[in-house]
Amino acid sequence: MRLYGFMPYCWRNYLLIRDIMEHAEFNKDLLKFLNTSPTPWHAVDTMKQRLSAAGFQELDEREDWSLVSNQGYYVVRNGSSIVAFRTGSKDVTTSGIRMVGAHTDSPCLKVKPNPELRRKGFFQLGVEVYGGVLLNPWFDRDLSLAGRVTVLDEDGKVRDTLVDFRKPVAFIPSLAIHLDREANSNRTVNPQTDLPPVLMQVPESDTTSFVDLLSQQVKAETGLTVRKVLGYELSFYDAREASFVGLRDDFIASARLDNLLSCYIGLQSLLKTSGDEAALLVCNDHEEVGSMSAEGAQGPFLTAVLDRWVGAGKARAIANSMMVSADNAHGIHPNYMDKHDENHGPILNQGPVIKVNHNQRYATNSRSAAVYRHISDELGLPHQTFVVRSDMGCGSTIGPLTAGNLGVTTLDIGVPQFGMHSIRELIGTEDGFTLFRVLTEFMQREQIF
């Protein structure tokens, strides 16, 4: 919290109460954001609604742009990636851009194109593993289904629509221990044969196709009459909503905290800024599978937006800019403490984590880390540092990819969490709000370096 020691008592109490209330509202709204964002398309749609409500104008990549100062804009690609920015009131080539990056996708199980499986009267769907999924936690969960569906409507027009079944519609039952005595000591998961979820029971004569069920769902959600389902990108997800956990509500448990938490923090920070400085948020899809796509961090999306915004002065603007790549970090697990370097084990609720890897799996350098530490220290807020054990491999983020594409000074940072890439993950209730406060200050700071 703030440093209140030298303020008058009544004013100090007022600020403390205000911060506590803002913190509580931040976490409450975070849960709402997570619950309405079961897929990247839903997350981007939610962000679009919030940006539009705050006066940001949507841009279309197919049209000319006429950007003005002191205005907010956003542009979406593929419905699953978004760039939102404030133009600020100054010459962006000399003042630079305060950037925050995150990603919209999370490891999950995606429905295959021809998914129907009928076995002993059970209707199941074949699934493809997306990203580095921790598979065992997917068993014995209430699962729902959501994503994007492309249809031919009654007027013969091809159009995209979002669907979200919301209620539990599927289950992946474990094999009973009586039939697998080694389950607790030597269990492996075959993604092809072990993971198809059970959706319902049907008679042997049943010919219902999955696209028939999709057409019905589209009609129920949107009122749209579907002549034909032409394609879909659908993911199963944990039907249980995000929640506070712990005897003192110390934690938040949810699906997709990696990395919708950072998307939410970046969005709230951008919305909170004064607008005087040029600031930008990019939330890319496909980080969990390498980011090589038209809308991924290795693709041209962000560069294309900057080219159209800044034009010939882009190189100068980038030299005066900084990117904060926000993606969750591995908190030290009390049951597996030996998995961390003894001097670099981040603790939940003790501050965001500056991520360092000199082999460039993270893009942090001493300069970018110093900027964050300085702002955090000024606000009286905690921060930590993570370095992977020297005898273990290190994950990565969009940070090095964006730094390499743009040539921008970059910091990798994230909120510490447990259970990364599980169907349900855990963070502390303090750290997201702390990162939000620092990023808000960063995105409206007059001088970065």
Automatic annotation (TrEMBL):
Write down the CDD domains for this protein, in alphabetical order.
M18_DAP
Question: Which cofactors must be present for this protein to function?
Answer: Zn(2+)
Q: What is this protein called?
A: M18 family aminopeptidase
Originating gene? apeB
Q: Provide a Gene Ontology MF annotation, just one.
A: metallopeptidase activity
Query: What residue intervals traverse the membrane?
Result: none
The text of the family note is: Belongs to the peptidase M18 family.
* CC annotations in GO: cytoplasm
- Give yes or no: UniProt keyword Protease: yes
Q: Where is the signal peptide?
A: none
Q: Which UniProt keywords apply?
A: Aminopeptidase, Hydrolase, Metal-binding, Metalloprotease, Protease, Zinc
Q: Which domain of life is it from?
A: Bacteria
Q: What organism, scientifically named, is this protein from?
A: Marinobacter adhaerens (strain DSM 23420 / HP15)
